[in-house]
Design a protein that fits this description.
With 235 residues, the protein is an alpha/beta fold. It has one domain: Rossmann fold (3-Layer(aba) Sandwich). 43% of the residues lie in helices and 19% in strands. It has a seven-stranded mixed sheet, sandwiched between helices. Helix 4 runs antiparallel to helix 9 (191-199), helix 5 (102-110) crosses helix 7 and helix 8 packs antiparallel against helix 11. It starts with 6 loop residues before the first helix and ends in a 9-residue tail after the last strand.
């Protein structure tokens, strides 16, 4: 992680996108995972919108009958802390995204793109192997390929994944090189990410995996950058 590039070097490298659409499965994904990257995009002048596919109602943390509604409020508060321009929250069943028709999800996400020139999501393994994360990431990449957009995928490095598995039994999968993409480690400022995390009170309280991951990452995030390719004609 000593070879991490500065934010200015990174944004220059990816071309300082004008508008980014973030595709995630659950409220808090935008903060717990992507928070530092998204606030960095905002600082660089990128307009950021979040598309969240579930209300996260199946979480076992602070589980109550109104958890989905509470998590919606947490998401919107966290988005404001990160400087996100808009949030589109949908009501697919938490824990069952992988069972939803993939083409229907692609149509939904495509309808939210507007004038985006960048799609941001978790890596293809879903970082922790969570089926919802994997489904959301697969849809994001499919739509980006269809529209000829660049993709920024977030994940963790091998050392972080190994430590989390060894210490806490957490099933993290390291983000690695992939065909047509490049892995970059970037220096980040977590100030606004921490403020956004605090908004997710139902999920951030008594969450040792989150706390340990952030400690292990320090001031560095690991991302995989896929440059834009020619749009594919549907049909």
């Amino acid at each position: 992680m000593n070879n991490a590039v500065t934010p200015s070097e990174f944004w220059l490298r990816i071309g300082s996108p004008r508008r980014a659409v973030v595709v995630v499965a659950h409220p808090d994904d935008e903060s717990f995972g992507l928070g530092a990257v998204l606030s960095g995009l905002v600082d660089d002048g990128t307009s950021v919108s979040v598309v969240c596919l579930t209300h996260g109602e199946a979480s076992t943390l602070d589980a109550t009958s109104d958890l989905g509604s509470r998590r919606e409020g947490e998401l919107r508060a966290a988005a404001a802390e990160l400087g996100i321009d808009s949030v589109a929250l949908f009501d697919y069943a938490d824990g069952y995204l992988a069972e939803v028709d993939r083409s229907a999800l692609c149509v939904l996400v495509d309808s939210q793109l507007g004038g985006a020139d960048l799609v941001v999501t978790f890596d293809s393994c879903g970082v922790t192997g969570h089926p919802d994360h994997q489904a959301a990431s697969a849809v994001a990449r499919s739509v980006a390929v269809l529209r000829g957009l660049a993709v920024l995928e977030w994940g963790v490095g091998p050392e972080v994944a190994e430590a989390l598995r060894a210490e806490l039994g957490a099933c993290f999968v390291p983000l690695s090189e992939d065909a047509g993409a490049v892995v970059i480690e970037i220096e980040v400022d977590r100030q606004r990410q921490f403020a956004a995390i605090a908004c997710h009170r139902s999920q951030a309280t008594d969450n040792p995996v989150l706390a340990r991951r952030l400690a292990l990452q320090g001031s560095v995030e690991r991302v995989r950058w896929r440059t834009a390719q020619g749009a594919v004609t549907p049909g």
